[in-house]
């Protein structure tokens, strides 16, 4: 059906469908994390939970899966609903997901941004919004799917069953109950009075990730990660017909 549509329209529809599928997978993981934290919040009213928050940043917007406000600090959660094997460390720019298929003799590997680094932007956005410092915030990554860690992970990278024990371990008091309520009310007021942030955030995602078309083959280019120096680890657009077609484009120049 898409072949009957004008190229710009069909490309936009493909991007939209891909984005919606990705969000559906992500939301299923986020829902499990939210339910787990909510079970704690119902028993202890010191905790205030906010889900799927979009905050404005100097360069646009950023979407935060979960924010938990408590006297014991502000927890900022990034959820990953992944399967397969996960390889990574605290300082690496990229992590690797390895998937096994009965139709292949070897695993399929995908690289993704270090989620600790990804969530650091969210933490900084929360700190700026609430006017707090790094000492009272927790950058937490939760893998909610059926994945298995194949490298030693930092203590703030958790499987779903480790989530509540991790929160309960944090017992140092940073804020009074009055301050916690003030933070929570500020966030509630922001959500109530800025209803257009989700639409703005979606536009930012589409504008920043529109796949260019290969000028030689006319096909939608794919995002790749360079493996060789001097550009190892950097992202670029490559033609899906590689190695027959070796056309590439710089990501940053396409996103400006």
Number of domains: 2
Helical percentage: 25-40%
* Amount of beta strand: 25-35%
Measure the end-to-end span: 31 Å
- What kind of sheet is the major sheet? 5 strands, mixed
Q: What is the strand tally?
A: 12
What's the overall geometry? globular
Uncertain ranges: 1-6, 19-26
Q: Oligomeric form of this entry?
A: single chain
- Radius of gyration (CA) equals 20 Å
Total count of helical runs of at least 4 residues: 6
Structural class: alpha/beta
Arithmetic mean pLDDT: 82
User: Which sequence of SSEs, written as H and E, runs from N to C?
Assistant: HEEEEEEHEEEHHHEEEH
Give a topology summary:
Layout: H1 7-43, E1 48-57, E2 60-70, E3 73-80, E4 85-87, E5 94-99, E6 108-113, H2 115-130, E7 137-143, E8 148-149, E9 157-159, H3 163-169, H4 177-193, H5 197-208, E10 222-225, E11 235-238, E12 248-250, H6 251-255
Parallel strand pairs: 3-7, 4-8, 7-9
Antiparallel strand pairs: 1-2, 2-3, 4-5, 5-6, 10-11, 11-12
Can you describe this structure?
- The chain has 256 residues and is of the alpha/beta class.
- The chain has helices spanning 7-43, 115-130, 163-169, 177-193, 197-208, 251-255; strands at residues 48-57, 60-70, 73-80, 85-87, 94-99, 108-113, 137-143, 148-149, 157-159, 222-225, 235-238, 248-250.
- The chain has a five-stranded mixed β-sheet with strand order 1-2-3-7-9, with helices on both faces. Strands 6-5-4-8 form a four-stranded mixed β-sheet.
- A hairpin with a 2-residue loop joins strand 1 and strand 2.
- The protein is globular and about 65 Å long.
- The two termini are 31 Å apart.
């Amino acid at each position: 059906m898409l072949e009957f549509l004008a190229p710009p329209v069909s490309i936009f529809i493909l991007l939209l469908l891909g984005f919606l599928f990705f969000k559906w997978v992500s939301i299923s993981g986020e829902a499990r994390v939210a339910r787990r934290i909510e079970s704690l919040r119902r028993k202890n009213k010191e905790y205030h939970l906010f889900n799927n928050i979009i905050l404005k940043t100097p360069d646009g917007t950023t979407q935060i899966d979960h924010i938990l406000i408590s006297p014991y600090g502000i927890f900022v959660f990034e959820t990953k609903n992944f399967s397969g094997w996960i390889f990574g460390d605290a300082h690496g720019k990229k992590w690797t997901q390895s998937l096994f298929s009965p139709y292949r003799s070897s695993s399929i590997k995908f690289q993704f941004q270090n989620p600790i680094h990804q969530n650091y932007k969210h933490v900084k956005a929360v700190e700026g919004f609430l006017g707090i410092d790094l000492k009272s915030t927790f950058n937490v990554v939760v893998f909610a799917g059926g994945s298995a860690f194949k490298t030693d992970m930092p203590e703030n990278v958790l499987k779903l069953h480790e989530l509540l024990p991790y929160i309960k371990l944090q017992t140092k008091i940073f804020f009074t109950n009055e301050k916690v309520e003030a933070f929570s009310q500020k966030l509630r007021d922001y959500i109530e009075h800025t209803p257009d942030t989700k639409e703005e955030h979606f536009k930012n995602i589409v504008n920043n990730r529109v796949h260019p078309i290969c000028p030689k083959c006319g096909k939608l280019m794919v995002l790749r990660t360079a493996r060789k120096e001097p550009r190892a680890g950097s992202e670029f657009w490559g033609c899906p017909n590689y190695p027959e077609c070796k056309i590439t484009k710089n990501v940053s120049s396409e996103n400006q």
